[in-house]
Design brief:
Keywords: Cell outer membrane, Ion transport, Membrane, Receptor, Signal, TonB box, Transmembrane, Transmembrane beta strand, Transport. By secondary structure, the chain is mainly beta. The chain has 5 helices and 34 strands. The longest helix has 7 residues.
């Protein structure tokens, strides 16, 4: 079935992307018991969804397969509270925002490794190159999560888990083709034999794409994109209570770019490498679980302009080295704790050479940071059905000293099928290396800070055939870092390169304050082979910087209203059909709200036919009415698109 599992105060039925469940599974849906609850790992301690105080959406493998989405962002934006903006087609700069937070306020985790690019301006993760690939599940945890995930987790966490083999030998493949000469092929193989389990997967994606600049603004040529990636993991059990494991991910991508005024032959290259090695050991008859690990991430980016005398226009490299210990202990029945210590060392280098050969190559801007963190969270179940937790984190930054954060929450599961949730969390984000040490850097920056809370209710009716839910959230972020432009004649000393009299075009400073609040609501209904579901988000994200010209105006590229809906039907002879709708209200492209991005409605049709127990044929038509819209001003978006392919699971 298309199983978008959302067991949270607002999102039990996150948008199911237009796909029905199979007839047999739909018939059993209402009869599922609490023991079948999905276990969440984004909390760093395996918990059933009904025990998580924060709002969370879980997409399992069936949901990911049936979505047919190629990029992870296409899948994520169908869930409540998430908006995405992209500077063109596949592969161009892509920003994901959770509940109106900044795009670099989201932490992305793949198989336990936190991803970010220290050489990026905001230090966040660019979703442009994140394809669905060998993902087994995706968890979206909303609201400040810095207690467990540290700096950047102000908006929330996207936790991705790749496939883990269960059989002695198993494999999978997906291959599809469609509009604009788009071809995607993925395959993986793995197995579990005695103490060893392993899996290796790879993916290749190419497309002629669309013009990054919209045709209305001079774009005409297609800007293509290609992405190649490989993943691997292995775990070896050395004893009943001791195992070691390694994981790795590598991708290389190229995308053609345009200038803001029209077509150009410019292009960008991106390489990402992620590695992990760890040991797991259990004590006290398995009640005390321990993990020691080391991870390394490396992101290399470069931009080229073939028409320039000096083609290279950007060179950037960001590295993270991270040591970690984590412990989970079941103290007694109904009482558990998770705690740990981390050390993260980040480095970056970046430069933007002039196109003129007469101008010498500038030195690389370089910088590094060292953060040591301690965290702990206690979970208590004082009554059957009631879970309360509280946590604290202390970060010791080599430039900003100590910072202590708190969080608390509770969830109450009533016998009436009602679930009540409430939580409070604090966030902390140190200035990025780029913001401090680049050509626009300011070493006097202070950290960004945030706090937020949410409260919600979920109700299951008619034997869980109908579920409705809603949540209210509120978040305030202070000391936000923004880029300030400099006029040619300003006397502001920050408009001079530090230690030099050379003028620069701008600098970073802590001058912004943002506030966001809103409602997320969901509903899902299963009637035999028919499924209906949808979600609606109302998000008010405003600039509340005291004395600012834009005080009270909406933050850019954050629509106040967004909705998703789907209907699906599973026919008895193995054909599943569905339709999906996504509507986004208007938003603004700039801080002054003078540039409007109009509202839009997209409708998709999707179908899947079971050829055998292991092989299926699928097809989809996206944006069937060829809606013309923008998520970023001047940049193009995909029009009507048709794709078809085969999927195998063995």
């Amino acid at each position: 079935m298309f199983r978008v599992i959302v067991r949270s105060s607002i999102s039990l039925a996150a948008f199911a992307a237009g796909f029905p469940v199979s007839a047999a599974e739909a018939a059993n849906a209402a009869a599922r018991s609490e023991e079948d609850s999905i276990v969440v790992t984004a909390t760093r301690s395996p918990l059933a969804l009904d025990e998580v105080p924060s709002t969370i959406t879980v997409l399992d493998k069936t949901a990911i397969d049936r979505s047919q989405d190629i990029g992870a962002t296409e899948l994520l934006l169908r869930t409540p509270g998430i908006t995405v903006s992209r500077n063109g087609g596949y592969g161009t700069a892509t920003s994901l925002r959770i509940r109106g937070a900044e795009s670099d306020h989201t932490v992305v985790v793949i198989d336990g490794v936190k991803l970010n690019d220290p050489a990026a301006a905001g230090g966040g993760y660019n979703f442009a190159n994140l394809l669905v690939g060998d993902m087994e599940r995706i968890e979206i945890l909303r609201g400040p999560q810095s207690i467990l995930w540290g700096s950047q987790a102000i908006g929330g966490v996207v936790n991705i888990v790749t496939a883990i083999p269960e059989k002695p030998l198993e494999g999978s493949f997906d291959i599809e083709a469609g509009s604009r000469n788009t071809v995607s092929a993925r395959a993986a193989i793995g197995g579990r034999t005695g103490p060893l389990n392993w899996r290796i997967g790879g993916q290749s994606f190419t497309t002629d794409g669309i013009s990054a600049i919209a045709p209305a603004f001079g774009g005409g040529e297609r800007d293509g994109y290609r992405n190649r990636s490989v993943t691997g993991r292995a775990e070896l059990a050395l004893a009943s209570n001791l195992s070691v494991e390694v994981r790795g991910y590598y991708s290389t991508a190229r995308v053609n770019l345009d200038s803001t005024s029209g077509d150009t032959p410019d292009y960008a290259l991106n390489e990402e490498f992620v590695s992990y090695a760890g040991a797991n050991f259990d004590l006290l008859d398995g009640r005390f679980r321990n993990r020691i690990s080391y991870s390394y991430t490396d992101t290399d980016r470069s931009n080229y302009g073939p028409l320039r005398a000096r083609p290279v226009s950007l060179q950037a490299k960001g590295e993270n080295r991270r040591w970690e210990y984590q412990g989970n202990i079941d103290v007694t029945r109904g009482v558990s704790a998770v705690f740990g210590v981390e050390n993260e060392r980040s480095r970056f280098r970046s430069r933007s050479p002039s196109g003129s050969l007469a101008t010498p190559l500038p030195d690389f801007a370089i910088g590094k940071a060292d953060v040591t963190s301690l965290y702990g969270q206690l979970s208590v179940e004082p009554l059957d059905g009631l879970t309360i937790n509280g946590g604290v984190r202390h970060d010791d930054h080599d430039r900003f000293g100590g910072q202590t954060l708190f969080a608390a929450g509770g969830v109450w599961r009533l016998p009436t099928g009602t679930i009540l949730r409430a939580s409070y969390g604090e966030g902390f984000k140190a200035p990025t290396l780029y913001q401090m040490f680049s050509e626009y850097g300011n070493v006097a920056l202070d950290p960004e800070e945030a706090h937020g809370w949410e409260a919600g209710i979920e109700q299951q009716l008619f034997g869980r055939a109908l579920t409705v839910g809603g949540v209210w959230f509120d978040r305030t972020t202070t000391g936000q870092i923004i880029f300030n432009s400099c006029s040619p004649t300003t006397p502001n000393p920050l408009c001079l390169v530090p230690g030099d009299s050379t003028r620069r075009s701008g600098y970073y400073s802590n001058v912004a304050r943002g506030e966001a609040h809103g409602i997320e609501a969901t509903a899902a209904l299963t009637l035999g082979a028919l499924t209906l579901d949808g979600n609606y988000s109302w998000i008010v994200a405003e600039d509340r910087s005291p004395g600012a010209t834009n005080f009270g105006r909406d933050l850019p590229r954050r629509p106040r209203h967004a909705a998703n809906a789907s209907v699906g039907y599973a026919l008895p002879f193995g054909l599943d059909v569905g339709a999906a709708l996504r509507w986004s209200g208007k938003s603004f492209d700039n801080a002054s709200n003078s540039i409007v991005l109009d509202d839009y409605t997209l409708i998709d049709l999707r179908a899947e036919f079971r050829l055998s127990e292991n092989v299926r044929f699928f097809a989809r038509a996206e944006n069937i009415f060829d809606e013309n819209y923008m998520t970023a001003y001047r940049y193009g978006t995909l029009g009507r698109s048709i794709y078809a392919g085969f999927r195998g699971r063995f």
